[in-house]
Amino acid sequence: MEACSPAWQERLSAWFDGEVQAHEQGAVELHLGRCVGCAREAARYAGLRERMKAELAAVPPVPPELRARVSRLVPRAQPSSSWPRRVAGLAATVAVLGGGWALWPRGMNEALAFDLERHHLKTFSRTAPCEFESSDPSEVKAWVEREVGYSVEVPEVPGATLLGARRCELHGSLSASLQYRHGNKAMTLFLPPPGSAAARHAASFAGAGTRCTQGPVGERICVAQRGSEQVALAVSELEAPVLLDALASFTP
Predict the structure, then answer these.
(1) How many Å apart are CA 204 and CA 162, to the nearest integer?
(2) pLDDT one digit per residue (tens) for the chain, 252 residues
(3) By three-state DSSP, how is residue 37 classified?
(4) Cα–Cα distance measured from residue 58 to residue 215, given in angstroms and rounded to the nearest whole number
(5) Residue-wise DSSP of 65-87
(6) 0.90 surpassed by pTM
(7) CA 17 – CA 7 distance, rounded (Å)
(8) What are the residue ranges spanned by the domains of the chain?
(9) In whole angstroms, what is the distance from residue 195 CA to residue 74 CA?
(10) Which of 18, 129, 134, 226 suits a disulfide with 230, CB 3.0-4.6 Å?
(11) What angle separates helix 64-73 from helix 83-97, to the nearest 10 degrees?
(12) From CA 20, how far away is CA 36, in angstroms rounded?
Protein backbone atom coordinates (compact mmCIF):
# COMPACT_ATOMS: atom_id res chain seq x y z
CA MET A 1 0.00 0.00 0.00
CA GLU A 2 1.72 3.22 -1.18
CA ALA A 3 -0.90 5.76 -0.14
CA CYS A 4 -3.35 6.09 2.73
CA SER A 5 -6.94 5.21 1.95
CA PRO A 6 -9.54 7.78 3.10
CA ALA A 7 -10.50 5.46 5.98
CA TRP A 8 -6.91 5.12 7.16
CA GLN A 9 -6.29 8.85 6.78
CA GLU A 10 -9.21 9.45 9.13
CA ARG A 11 -7.90 6.94 11.69
CA LEU A 12 -4.36 8.27 11.39
CA SER A 13 -5.54 11.84 11.95
CA ALA A 14 -7.50 10.82 15.06
CA TRP A 15 -4.49 8.82 16.35
CA PHE A 16 -2.16 11.77 15.87
CA ASP A 17 -4.52 14.03 17.85
CA GLY A 18 -4.82 11.54 20.73
CA GLU A 19 -8.48 10.80 19.97
CA VAL A 20 -8.33 6.98 19.87
CA GLN A 21 -8.64 4.35 22.58
CA ALA A 22 -5.75 2.10 23.62
CA HIS A 23 -6.72 -0.85 21.38
CA GLU A 24 -7.19 1.48 18.40
CA GLN A 25 -3.80 3.05 19.04
CA GLY A 26 -2.15 -0.37 18.85
CA ALA A 27 -3.90 -1.13 15.56
CA VAL A 28 -2.74 2.15 14.01
CA GLU A 29 0.85 1.68 15.17
CA LEU A 30 0.87 -1.86 13.76
CA HIS A 31 -0.47 -0.53 10.46
CA LEU A 32 2.23 2.16 10.31
CA GLY A 33 4.88 -0.55 10.43
CA ARG A 34 3.38 -2.13 7.31
CA CYS A 35 2.16 0.79 5.23
CA VAL A 36 4.69 3.09 3.57
CA GLY A 37 2.06 5.64 2.59
CA CYS A 38 0.61 6.00 6.09
CA ALA A 39 4.07 6.12 7.67
CA ARG A 40 4.96 8.95 5.30
CA GLU A 41 1.72 10.75 6.20
CA ALA A 42 2.46 10.35 9.94
CA ALA A 43 5.92 11.86 9.43
CA ARG A 44 4.34 14.79 7.59
CA TYR A 45 1.92 15.42 10.48
CA ALA A 46 4.80 15.33 12.98
CA GLY A 47 6.84 17.78 10.92
CA LEU A 48 3.88 20.15 10.58
CA ARG A 49 3.28 20.12 14.33
CA GLU A 50 6.92 20.93 15.10
CA ARG A 51 7.05 23.75 12.55
CA MET A 52 3.86 25.30 13.92
CA LYS A 53 5.14 25.03 17.51
CA ALA A 54 8.34 26.80 16.49
CA GLU A 55 6.41 29.53 14.67
CA LEU A 56 4.07 30.08 17.61
CA ALA A 57 6.97 30.31 20.06
CA ALA A 58 8.59 33.02 17.94
CA VAL A 59 5.51 35.26 17.73
CA PRO A 60 6.03 38.60 19.56
CA PRO A 61 3.27 40.45 21.46
CA VAL A 62 0.71 42.14 19.23
CA PRO A 63 0.11 45.90 19.53
CA PRO A 64 -3.61 46.56 20.19
CA GLU A 65 -4.00 48.85 17.17
CA LEU A 66 -2.53 46.24 14.82
CA ARG A 67 -4.70 43.54 16.39
CA ALA A 68 -7.79 45.60 15.55
CA ARG A 69 -6.67 46.12 11.93
CA VAL A 70 -6.00 42.41 11.42
CA SER A 71 -9.34 41.51 13.00
CA ARG A 72 -11.16 43.64 10.42
CA LEU A 73 -9.24 42.15 7.50
CA VAL A 74 -9.22 38.42 8.32
CA PRO A 75 -11.52 36.66 5.79
CA ARG A 76 -14.38 34.61 7.18
CA ALA A 77 -14.08 31.08 5.79
CA GLN A 78 -16.81 28.43 5.89
CA PRO A 79 -16.62 25.87 8.76
CA SER A 80 -15.85 23.08 6.27
CA SER A 81 -12.51 24.68 5.35
CA SER A 82 -9.46 22.84 6.62
CA TRP A 83 -7.58 24.46 9.49
CA PRO A 84 -4.22 24.63 7.64
CA ARG A 85 -5.94 26.76 4.98
CA ARG A 86 -7.33 29.08 7.66
CA VAL A 87 -3.83 29.47 9.14
CA ALA A 88 -2.45 30.25 5.69
CA GLY A 89 -5.17 32.85 5.12
CA LEU A 90 -4.31 34.57 8.38
CA ALA A 91 -0.61 34.56 7.53
CA ALA A 92 -1.36 36.19 4.17
CA THR A 93 -3.41 38.92 5.85
CA VAL A 94 -0.64 39.67 8.33
CA ALA A 95 1.90 39.76 5.49
CA VAL A 96 -0.13 42.50 3.79
CA LEU A 97 0.25 44.58 6.93
CA GLY A 98 3.99 44.07 6.69
CA GLY A 99 4.50 43.59 10.41
CA GLY A 100 5.21 39.88 10.81
CA TRP A 101 2.66 39.73 13.63
CA ALA A 102 -0.01 37.13 14.39
CA LEU A 103 -3.49 37.61 15.83
CA TRP A 104 -3.78 36.15 19.33
CA PRO A 105 -6.68 36.11 21.78
CA ARG A 106 -6.06 38.69 24.46
CA GLY A 107 -5.88 37.13 27.92
CA MET A 108 -6.40 33.49 26.84
CA ASN A 109 -3.69 30.85 26.91
CA GLU A 110 -2.42 30.81 23.32
CA ALA A 111 -1.79 27.06 23.11
CA LEU A 112 -5.31 26.34 24.37
CA ALA A 113 -6.87 28.77 21.87
CA PHE A 114 -4.96 27.18 19.01
CA ASP A 115 -5.98 23.67 20.12
CA LEU A 116 -9.65 24.68 20.31
CA GLU A 117 -9.71 26.14 16.80
CA ARG A 118 -7.66 23.30 15.34
CA HIS A 119 -10.00 20.63 16.73
CA HIS A 120 -13.13 22.56 15.73
CA LEU A 121 -12.05 23.22 12.14
CA LYS A 122 -10.58 19.76 11.66
CA THR A 123 -13.72 18.10 13.07
CA PHE A 124 -16.02 19.83 10.59
CA SER A 125 -13.67 19.16 7.68
CA ARG A 126 -14.29 15.43 8.20
CA THR A 127 -16.89 13.50 6.23
CA ALA A 128 -18.40 12.45 9.58
CA PRO A 129 -17.73 15.15 12.20
CA CYS A 130 -18.85 13.04 15.17
CA GLU A 131 -17.48 9.80 16.58
CA PHE A 132 -20.91 9.23 18.08
CA GLU A 133 -23.87 10.58 16.10
CA SER A 134 -27.11 11.33 17.93
CA SER A 135 -29.45 14.27 18.47
CA ASP A 136 -30.59 12.81 21.80
CA PRO A 137 -28.80 14.60 24.69
CA SER A 138 -29.21 11.61 27.03
CA GLU A 139 -27.57 9.24 24.51
CA VAL A 140 -24.70 11.65 23.92
CA LYS A 141 -24.24 12.13 27.68
CA ALA A 142 -24.07 8.35 28.20
CA TRP A 143 -21.52 7.94 25.37
CA VAL A 144 -19.26 10.67 26.79
CA GLU A 145 -19.35 9.18 30.27
CA ARG A 146 -18.56 5.72 28.88
CA GLU A 147 -15.87 6.68 26.35
CA VAL A 148 -14.28 9.78 27.89
CA GLY A 149 -14.64 8.83 31.54
CA TYR A 150 -16.53 11.67 33.21
CA SER A 151 -20.02 13.12 33.28
CA VAL A 152 -21.06 16.22 31.31
CA GLU A 153 -24.25 18.12 30.66
CA VAL A 154 -25.42 18.08 27.03
CA PRO A 155 -27.52 21.20 26.45
CA GLU A 156 -30.25 21.80 23.91
CA VAL A 157 -28.88 24.96 22.28
CA PRO A 158 -31.54 27.46 21.08
CA GLY A 159 -31.77 27.41 17.28
CA ALA A 160 -29.18 24.65 16.91
CA THR A 161 -29.24 20.92 16.17
CA LEU A 162 -27.13 18.52 18.23
CA LEU A 163 -25.10 16.29 15.91
CA GLY A 164 -23.23 14.18 18.46
CA ALA A 165 -19.88 14.06 20.22
CA ARG A 166 -16.24 13.10 19.85
CA ARG A 167 -13.08 12.87 21.91
CA CYS A 168 -10.17 15.28 21.63
CA GLU A 169 -6.99 16.10 23.52
CA LEU A 170 -6.63 19.50 25.19
CA HIS A 171 -3.40 20.26 27.02
CA GLY A 172 -2.59 16.57 27.39
CA SER A 173 -6.00 15.50 28.77
CA LEU A 174 -8.65 13.49 26.96
CA SER A 175 -11.66 15.80 26.70
CA ALA A 176 -15.23 15.70 25.43
CA SER A 177 -16.53 17.89 22.63
CA LEU A 178 -20.11 18.29 21.41
CA GLN A 179 -20.93 19.18 17.80
CA TYR A 180 -23.89 21.34 16.69
CA ARG A 181 -25.27 22.97 13.55
CA HIS A 182 -26.83 26.41 13.78
CA GLY A 183 -28.34 27.15 10.37
CA ASN A 184 -25.48 26.48 7.95
CA LYS A 185 -22.76 27.17 10.52
CA ALA A 186 -20.90 24.76 12.76
CA MET A 187 -20.33 25.05 16.50
CA THR A 188 -18.31 22.96 18.95
CA LEU A 189 -18.75 22.94 22.72
CA PHE A 190 -15.62 21.74 24.52
CA LEU A 191 -16.02 20.34 28.04
CA PRO A 192 -12.55 19.64 29.49
CA PRO A 193 -12.27 17.43 32.60
CA PRO A 194 -12.70 19.34 35.88
CA GLY A 195 -9.31 20.23 37.33
CA SER A 196 -7.44 19.63 34.06
CA ALA A 197 -4.90 22.13 32.70
CA ALA A 198 -7.34 23.13 29.94
CA ALA A 199 -10.10 23.74 32.49
CA ARG A 200 -7.79 25.82 34.70
CA HIS A 201 -6.61 28.01 31.79
CA ALA A 202 -10.18 28.50 30.58
CA ALA A 203 -11.43 29.37 34.08
CA SER A 204 -8.60 31.86 34.49
CA PHE A 205 -9.64 33.57 31.25
CA ALA A 206 -13.38 33.59 32.06
CA GLY A 207 -13.02 34.77 35.65
CA ALA A 208 -16.25 34.50 37.60
CA GLY A 209 -18.53 34.79 34.56
CA THR A 210 -18.53 34.44 30.78
CA ARG A 211 -16.02 35.95 28.36
CA CYS A 212 -15.42 35.89 24.59
CA THR A 213 -12.45 36.52 22.33
CA GLN A 214 -11.27 35.81 18.80
CA GLY A 215 -8.83 32.95 18.27
CA PRO A 216 -5.61 32.99 16.24
CA VAL A 217 -7.28 31.63 13.09
CA GLY A 218 -10.35 33.87 13.34
CA GLU A 219 -13.01 31.74 15.04
CA ARG A 220 -14.88 33.20 18.01
CA ILE A 221 -14.21 31.53 21.38
CA CYS A 222 -16.54 32.04 24.38
CA VAL A 223 -15.92 30.57 27.83
CA ALA A 224 -18.25 30.08 30.79
CA GLN A 225 -17.39 28.78 34.22
CA ARG A 226 -19.81 26.40 35.92
CA GLY A 227 -19.14 25.98 39.62
CA SER A 228 -15.58 25.98 40.97
CA GLU A 229 -13.98 23.58 38.46
CA GLN A 230 -16.17 22.85 35.41
CA VAL A 231 -15.93 25.12 32.37
CA ALA A 232 -17.45 25.05 28.90
CA LEU A 233 -15.95 26.60 25.77
CA ALA A 234 -17.90 27.37 22.59
CA VAL A 235 -16.03 27.75 19.29
CA SER A 236 -17.64 28.92 16.04
CA GLU A 237 -17.77 31.71 13.49
CA LEU A 238 -21.22 32.49 14.89
CA GLU A 239 -21.75 35.82 16.64
CA ALA A 240 -21.08 36.07 20.37
CA PRO A 241 -24.77 36.29 21.46
CA VAL A 242 -25.44 32.88 19.91
CA LEU A 243 -22.46 31.33 21.68
CA LEU A 244 -23.47 32.95 24.96
CA ASP A 245 -26.96 31.45 24.61
CA ALA A 246 -25.33 28.05 24.09
CA LEU A 247 -23.22 28.48 27.22
CA ALA A 248 -26.12 29.75 29.35
CA SER A 249 -27.12 26.14 30.11
CA PHE A 250 -23.78 25.58 31.81
CA THR A 251 -23.97 28.45 34.27
CA PRO A 252 -25.14 27.63 37.81
Answers:
(1) 28
(2) 445 666 676 677 677 666 666 667 778 878 877 787 777 777 766 666 666 556 555 555 555 655 555 454 444 444 444 444 454 444 444 443 333 333 445 678 888 888 898 889 888 888 888 999 999 999 999 999 999 999 998 988 889 999 999 999 888 889 999 999 999 899 999 999 998 999 999 998 888 788 999 887 788 999 998 766 689 999 999 998 889 888 887 655
(3) helix
(4) 17
(5) HHHHHHHHHS----TTS-HHHHH
(6) no
(7) 16
(8) 6-57, 64-97, 110-250
(9) 34
(10) 226
(11) 120
(12) 21
Q: Which CATH superfamily hosts domain 110-250?
A: MucB/RseB, C-terminal domain (3.30.200.100)
Secondary structure string (H, E, C) spanning 103-152: CCCCCCCHHHHHHHHHHHHHHCCCCCCCCEECCCHHHHHHHHHHHCCCCC
